[in-house]
Amino acid sequence: MPDVSANPKLPAATELAWLDDPSIAPQVVTLTAGTLRLVIAPAIGGALAAFYESTANGPRHWMRPASHAAFTERDPLRMASFPLFPYCNRIRNARFGFDGAIVDLSGNDPRFAHALHGNAWRRPWQVGALTQNSVDLHFEHEPDSRIAGDWPFRYRARQRIELSDQALRITLSAQNLAGRPMPFGMGHHPYYPRTRQTRIYADVAAMWHADAHVLPTRLGPHPAVDALRRDGLSPDAFDLDNNFANWAREATIAWPDESRQLTMTAEAPFDHMVIFAPVDDSQLCVEPVTNTTDCFNASGPREHVGGCVLQPGEELSATVTWTPKRM
């Protein structure tokens, strides 16, 4: 078994300066394969801190690297990517009806009026099996009635993270440990470098239009759908924080000015994709998810809404792969 007791020396770069902080370095796990590197922060929501290629000119980032504040403030929103369990995106007013009762998630985070992204991204994950190029991360949720808005179902989540010299592969899985059915969804929330020339390509069927609270109103056509399917979508073209239904489970983020691209592929039931590209902003997310926003309250065909119900003991697993390519 390779020696993984210490992280390998990383190239000096402003974006990765936090690795020189003695209070941060012990918090991360680094995987290596060929020239690819993946830095993981298990204690900060099981998040990825950096995914890059080591080059003679310094790191070439395939995801936006974490900021120093992401570590000091333990904020997954400023990481490179983080897992979403047991649902993705917002739940209207932090409430929904299920199995004859109201599930009240209000109060779990005063920053948000609507429940956001579940709870696994707010908790530390445990490191399991670890090699030079792979790691298992585990999170088990035990409901606590003393915590306002706590998810009331017991479940176990896992990330199997594998890095080859060609790609990053993450298998997400969850098992319902409650003695009753549990509503469920999962995903990952990657941020990408954003430039004026960045383009996104994906075969999608339609977009969920949203209100001022970023909650879905109707599924239908939009110029962004046409751009994604044809000439590529510029992140600057629209002010987006929207779900796209029934994509082909493949999307490419391209940086033609840098002669490179990153292709993300996903297995079912990752049948939904979110694009977060706010206007006049540096953020860009293209997220594989199993459910649309507010899926537990949404009406419509299951293929348009997503999500599922896990029976007691039932487990769901699916893989997302990111493949970099130099043109």
Protein architecture, described:
This protein is mainly beta and 327 residues long. The protein has one domain (14-326): Beta-galactosidase, Chain A, domain 5, CATH 2.70.98. The chain contains 3 helices and 25 strands. It has helices spanning 68-72, 223-229, 302-305, and strands at residues 29-33, 36-41, 47-55, 58-61, 83-84, 90-91, 95-98, 101-104, 115-116, 126-130, 134-141, 155-163, 168-176, 182-184, 187-188, 199-202, 206-210, 216-220, 240-245, 250-255, 260-266, 272-277, 285-289, 308-310, 315-326. A hairpin with a 3-residue loop joins strand 10 and strand 11. The longest helix has 7 residues, at 223-229. The protein is globular and about 60 Å long. The protein starts with 28 loop residues before the first strand and ends with a strand. Its EC number is 5.1.3.3. This is Aldose 1-epimerase. It is an enzyme of class 5 (isomerase).
Helical percentage: under 10%
Uncertain residue ranges: 1-12
If strands are numbered along the chain, what order do they take across the biggest sheet?
10-11-12-13-25-21-20-16
Q: What is the CATH class name?
A: Mainly Beta
- Quickly count the domains: 1
Put simply, the count of helices is 3
Estimate the mean pLDDT confidence. 93
Order of helices and strands: EEEEHEEEEEEEEEEEEEEHEEEEEHEE
Give the biggest sheet. 8 strands, antiparallel
Q: Beta-sheet strand percentage? A: 35-45%
Based on the structure given, which CATH architecture is correct? Distorted Sandwich
N→C terminal distance = 35 Å
Total beta strand runs: 25
